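Explain the record.
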Amino acid sequence: MWRRMVSMPPSRRSRRVTDFLVAHFNLVRGLHILSVIAFMAGMLYLPRLFVYHTQAEPGSRMDETFKVMERRLLRGIINPASIATALFGVGLILADAQMRGWSFLLEPWMATKLVALVGLYGFHGFLSASRKKFEKGQNTRPEKFWRMVNEIPFVLAIVIVVSVTTKFLNH
């Protein structure tokens, strides 16, 4: 089957992919939700680890333990889950576009969701860079900062979920 798809012209191949996505929409949506859960769990936990890491004595056994925990959380859970979330999300967009056209991307609820997603993935990048600073012993941010930013992923999740579930200002 794979050889048959590769030998097809791109337009026909992309049509088969979108047909598959439409036919399996609920499966793709379920996998998207599961990957979002894993992504959000990690995004909420990593700043909490940073809170405790700021309390560890540099070079101590606890400092080294936090470095390992943070690296494994980011590389083993957050990064793969963020990629899966994005891929399944794009699959849902492609399926939706085939079922009802591309105009839904211009609806206020979808624009709000996409802006919040940019913020969430930007925060992911910030956390990744911060983990590297912790690993090098170069963190300059206090415990209170990490306690406050720990709420950012949840606030963005509220915006995303409310946008999608209410489809506010939808015409």
Summary: The chain is about 80% helix and 0% strand. The two ends are 41 Å apart (CA to CA). The mean pLDDT is 93. The longest helix spans residues 61-100.
